[in-house]
Design a protein that fits this description.
single chain, alpha/beta, Conserved hypothetical protein from pyrococcus furiosus pfu- 392566-001, ParB domain, 4 helices, globular
Amino acid sequence: MIFKRVGSDRPYPDHGLTAREWAALPPRQLRLDELITTKDTLQLSSLLDEDSTFYGDLFAHVVEWRGEYYLEDGLHRALRAALQQRHVLHARVHTLTDAAAAPQGA
C-alpha cells in the first residue's frame, strides 16, 4: 500500500490558506504511508510531466488534522515518488486544530 488511506474529499474544515501563506510554511519530509489522499483521481499528464508545478508550488500541501496527514495538493508528486521507489515526500504541512477551525464567536 502506498498511502495510509485513499479518500475522495477533505474531512477537515476549510483552512482558508492562500498560496502565499502555503509558501511561508517550510517543507518537511513525510512518509507516503502516513498520508491520506483527498482525491481519488489524477490527471495522467500531471504525473508524467517532469516539470510539473501544479498550483505553482514545488512541494505538496498537507493538512494535519486530528493526528492524521491529509494530502490536499500534490497527489501526482506522491505517486511519482512511489514509482521512483522513494518512501518520503517533501511537503508543506499546515496543522489545523479544532479551535482554529471553529467559527468566530462559537
